[in-house]
Amino acid sequence: MHAVWRQKKLVLGCALLTGVLGAGYAFLAPKTYEVSSVLRPAAINELDALNRSEVYKLPPADALAKVGAQLDSYEARLGFFRSHEQLFTAFQKPGQSLEQSFEDFNRNSVNLILPDPKKSDSLSSYIRLELQYPADVDGVAILNGFVDYAIASEREQVGADLKVIVNNRLNELKGKIDAARANYETEKESKIAKLLEDDRLKRARLQDELSALRLQMKMERTNRLAELAEAISIAKSMGIKTPTTPSSMADATRSGSSQVMRTEVNNQQIPLYFLGTEALEAERTALQQRTSDDFTNPRIAQIGKELQLLEANREVEVLRKRGNEDIFLQDVEPLRAEVARLRNLNIDMSNLKLVTVDRRAQEPLAPIKPKKAIILAVSLIAGLVIGTLIALIRHLISSRNQPVPYSSLEDGRFARRERKDDEPAA
Known about the structure:
There is one protein chain. Helix 7 (139-238) packs antiparallel against helix 9 and helix 7 packs antiparallel against helix 10. The protein is an alpha+beta fold. The two termini are 43 Å apart. The protein has 14 helices and 4 strands. It folds into 3 domains: 1-29 and 386-398, no CATH class; 30-163 and 347-385, FepE-like (Bacterial polysaccharide co-polymerase-like, 2-Layer Sandwich); 184-339, Orthogonal Bundle (Helix Hairpins). Helices cover 60% and strands 6% of the residues. It has helices at 2-6, 8-28, 48-51, 60-71, 74-83, 98-108, 139-238, 246-252, 276-289, 298-309, 314-320, 333-343, 372-401, 412-422; strands at residues 32-41, 110-113, 127-134, 355-359. It has a 4-stranded antiparallel beta sheet with strand order 2-3-1-4. Keywords: Cell membrane, Coiled coil, Membrane, Transmembrane, Transmembrane helix.
């Protein structure tokens, strides 16, 4: 310490020299400034229209996360760099491509700070974006412009996502309505086919019944003719020409002039030949001249009526002549209401506020680099240390080169040992 103190001018000179060098660097080195912008979640009412659409759910925290991802996106930063090249002229170095200059800027100048995920307090949700830039760069315009660019890009992305989701939902609803329409068409054709098939079956049964009835009546007429022929032959053999009864024939064989009126009660059918040949032959002639027996059975007329009604199925005609068949579709009213709601969905994406810019970048009051006070203090301390080291080294070197003095006062034993060594020589 005595040696250093004796060389205090040297130590102070070194400290002064390093201080001057540090001051020169502090005042002449390029200045670096820093600006920052802070984003926080938007208010709930800002995203209410989007969330109430029941198509796209975007809570404020998710919106902030999406904007943060956009701010941290390499593609978004490169897009802003390309679209605002005039702001990044100072970062473009000769011999470097645009992408290389951007890579250097993106790696060294932009820093995204997120809150500590261990903190559960919702008040700590924020995104902080910092930018460091030299003195000849408009860092405020760069940072604020990039924040606005990222928010606008994310807003466009949300609008595009919403449009795609709405279109997909409309296509899905259209597919369901088309499926319901196809199902209706199938059911209608099936119903028409079933109605026509039932008509054909009824028509065939009625025609079979009509043919059977006509055959039956023809056989009955043939049988009647046979009965009449037999009855005519009997009536001729008995000489009965006009209708009579068995009792009348018995009275005719009796004589007498008295006129008697009789009432005959008989539960047995009178044989046909009692009608007489005249009536029987007249009936036979009529039956032989008959061309159709349809009028004799009322069922024939009923069958004809039913066949006439089956010529045209009015229900089938009504089904085929439906104009607007969509009104007959089943369970599509909610789908149509949803389609109308989605088509009338009008969300103004240009005014959609995804995040709140809590603090925009402002012109800094002072540069963050170089830190003059720290540089001066460090340079002075470094000068003192260097001067001290030099003083110590000089002291050690000078002490080694000087002879050792004899001093009995400092060391009596050393002085006596020197005298004993000198005695033989004397």
